């Protein structure tokens, strides 16, 4: 009797929220899966037609390549930068603890600033006649308009790192804090140097944290679209035309069949990435 | 000595992190004429480069203009706040109990629900965009604030985070309370909420920051200009009104910055819980 009651209590707490999740996310997604197999005109069954239309769409392929390039460059870069910052903060340690705490809060400021407010600064900073080029000109370099052409991708990666480095640094530090002091002492007794200790003890011990950092960095990498859209609108320079732009422009042109197929493909891709990461993480 | 060097080198990224905020603060008290002079190569295409420094003649002119002459800005400002409050209220009403149910009870289907929550949390907006659109259209909610608020109320990241904190509460506490004859609802209110409060605050704070810079959702679901949140309004301000633009950007960021300053410690806990705990 008591157990029965407890069981229903669980449903009592979860059901209101889960009903909302069903209504706004799950059930309509099932409809999207159905739509991905039918024509937008007349609604006849077209098999994998929409999928082949998406996968042979030049803009989509281009954008997928750009997004992959951004993600594959951005995530390792972000993880490396934030690892250095975290190591620096840990290195300050003991005596300079207050300074370290203050620096850590400072690194977190970018994640609090709404994208729409910051973007004004970035626009002026990376403009052809902007602040960055002004500084470069002191040293005799003449810069370009950073938001057009190939450099735009690096502007994007910079913005991504600027925004997320603090967040990721905090994650690294939490990972380091999880390694018990006694492990380090044992290493010291065995005469292991700082580098060896870091490489052979800290890194393997915080492996689960590293994979979670990768996952959260991936999650945050999708949100770079905000900055791109705010900086460059619906049709940005070619190297930063992302998958999100394609979806948005399909939406504006009412190509619901393509969005449906694209959403299913993207969903599968993300699920595969999560699955892979989880597998490595649980090993 | 080595530590001093380290400290100095860490100050460089720290400066880079706050530079845009300092720009917003300084720029908002720089008069429009002065700021236009600094930025004239960008705005009017003259020779040389834009420069920027602290105002020679600090003024509150921009704030006055913002307060008195731009009802538009305030309309959008309130739109953003309305959406934020709506989503947070929904998360409190639905998200917290859901986290509690997942963390503290065994029932069939629990594992599946948990998985669904995690997968949904990871999905980019583009995956659920069409689903949400179709459903909102079916409910004739498109182009209202509800179109952004309702799906946001049930977004799964916040409950997932709170769940992490609830899991840390020792189960023995509930057994003790049950022995004393406390009902399940009472346990939720008198044990769960108080002990989990720091986690709840952390998660809601993160959600607050997300809501303040929400962009894709209103861009997709809201059409009428007067219903736009700030994130869609700010980019439209012309650079010839640079002083006003900077000031508006600064005021738009104020709620988020204030809450960040007040709740930093919670924020850090929230970040850590999402990635590292257990």
CATH topology of chain A: MetI-like fold
Shape of chain B: globular
Contiguous low-pLDDT stretches of chain A (5 residues minimum) are: none
Task: Tell me the Rg of chain B in angstroms.
Answer: 23 Å
Element pattern of chain A in H and E: HHHHHHHHHHHHH
| Count of beta strands of chain B | 0
Distance between the termini of chain A: 40 Å
CATH architecture of the domain at 68-238 and 262-275 in chain B: Orthogonal Bundle
Q: Strand content of the residues of chain B, in percent?
A: under 5%
Number of strands of chain A: 0
Ranges of chain B where pLDDT stays below 50 over 5 or more residues in a row are: none
Give the CA-based shape of chain A. Answer: globular
Classified by CATH, the class of the domain at 68-238 and 262-275 in chain B is Mainly Alpha
How far is the first residue's CA from the last residue's CA of chain B?
38 Å
In which range does the helix fraction of chain B lie?
A: over 70%
Blueprint of the fold:
The complex is a heterodimer of chains A (283) and B (278).
Chain A: H1 2-35, H2 49-55, H3 58-92, H4 97-112, H5 115-126, H6 131-138, H7 151-177, H8 181-189, H9 194-205, H10 207-221, H11 224-232, H12 243-252, H13 256-282
Chain B: H1 2-28, H2 32-38, H3 40-43, H4 61-69, H5 71-104, H6 110-122, H7 125-138, H8 146-153, H9 157-167, H10 172-179, H11 184-212, H12 216-221, H13 230-233, H14 242-275
Helix pairs in contact in B: 1-14, 4-14, 5-8, 5-9, 5-11, 9-11, 11-14
Describe the structure.
The complex is a heterodimer of chains A (283) and B (278). In chain A, helix 4 crosses helix 7 (151-177). Chain A has 283 residues and is an all-alpha fold. Chain A starts with a helix and ends with a helix. Chain A has a single domain, classed as MetI-like (MetI-like fold), CATH 1.10.3720. Chain A is built from 13 helices and no strands. The radius of gyration of chain A is 24 Å and the shape is globular. Chain B has a domain at 68-238 and 262-275: MetI-like (MetI-like fold, Orthogonal Bundle). By secondary structure, chain B is mainly alpha-helical. Chain B has helices at 2-28, 32-38, 40-43, 61-69, 71-104, 110-122, 125-138, 146-153, 157-167, 172-179, 184-212, 216-221, 230-233, 242-275. In chain B, helix 1 packs across helix 14 and helix 5 runs antiparallel to helix 11. Chain B is built from 14 helices and no strands.
């Amino acid at each position: 009797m008591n157990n029965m009651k407890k069981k229903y209590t669980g449903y009592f707490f979860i059901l209101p929220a889960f009903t909302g999740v069903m209504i706004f996310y799950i059930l309509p997604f099932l409809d999207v899966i159905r739509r991905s197999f039918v024509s937008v005109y007349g609604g006849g069954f077209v098999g994998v037609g929409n999928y082949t239309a998406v996968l042979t769409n030049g803009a989509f392929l281009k954008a997928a390549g750009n997004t992959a390039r951004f993600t594959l460059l951005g995530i390792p870069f972000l993880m490396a930068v934030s690892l250095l910052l975290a190591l620096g903060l840990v290195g300050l340690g003991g005596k300079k603890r207050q300074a370290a705490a203050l620096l850590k809060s400072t690194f977190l400021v970018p994640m609090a600033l709404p994208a729409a407010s910051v973007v004004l600064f970035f626009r002026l900073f990376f403009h052809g006649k902007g602040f960055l080029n002004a500084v470069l000109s002191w040293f005799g370099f003449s810069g370009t308009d950073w938001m057009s052409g190939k450099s735009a991708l690096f502007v994007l990666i910079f913005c991504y790192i600027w925004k997320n480095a603090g967040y990721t640094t905090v994650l690294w530090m939490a990972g380091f804090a999880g390694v018990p002091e006694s492990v380090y002492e044992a290493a010291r007794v065995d005469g292991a140097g700082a580098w060896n200790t870091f490489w052979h003890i800290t890194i393997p011990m915080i492996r689960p944290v590293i994979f979670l950092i990768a996952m959260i960095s991936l999650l945050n990498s999708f949100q770079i679209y905000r900055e791109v859209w705010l900086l460059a609108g619906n049709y940005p320079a070619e190297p930063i035309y992302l998958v999100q732009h394609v979806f948005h422009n399909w939406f504006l042109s009412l190509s619901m069949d393509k969005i449906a197929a694209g959403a299913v493909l993207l969903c599968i891709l993300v699920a595969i990435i999560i699955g892979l990461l989880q597998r490595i993480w649980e090993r | 000595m080595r530590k001093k060097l380290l400290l100095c080198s860490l100050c460089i990224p720290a400066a880079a992190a706050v530079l845009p905020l300092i720009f917003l603060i300084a720029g908002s008290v720089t008069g429009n004429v002065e700021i236009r002079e600094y930025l004239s190569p960008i705005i009017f295409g003259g020779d040389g480069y834009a420069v920027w420094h602290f105002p020679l003649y600090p003024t509150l002119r921009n704030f006055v203009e913002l307060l008195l002459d731009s009802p538009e800005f305030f309309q959008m400002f309130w739109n953003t706040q309305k959406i934020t409050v709506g989503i947070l209220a929904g998360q409190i009403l639905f998200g917290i109990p859901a986290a509690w149910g997942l963390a503290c009870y065994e029932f069939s289907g629990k594992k599946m629900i948990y998985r669904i929550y995690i997968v949904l949390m990871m999905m980019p907006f583009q995956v659920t965009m069409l689903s949400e659109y179709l459903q909102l259209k079916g409910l004739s909610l498109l182009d209202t604030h509800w179109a952004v608020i309702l799906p946001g109320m049930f977004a799964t990241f916040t409950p997932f985070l709170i769940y992490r904190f609830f899991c840390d509460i020792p189960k023995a506490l509930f057994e003790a309370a049950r022995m004393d004859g406390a009902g399940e609802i009472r346990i939720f209110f008198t044990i769960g909420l108080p002990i989990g409060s720091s986690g709840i605050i952390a998660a809601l704070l993160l959600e607050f920051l997300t809501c303040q810079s929400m962009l894709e959702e209103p861009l997709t679901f809201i059409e009428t200009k007067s219903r736009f949140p700030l994130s869609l309004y700010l980019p439209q301000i012309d650079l010839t009104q640079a002083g006003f633009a900077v000031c508006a950007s600064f005021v738009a960021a104020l709620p988020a910055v204030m809450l960040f300053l007040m709740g930093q410690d919670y924020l850090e806990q929230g970040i850590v819980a999402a990635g590292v705990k257990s």
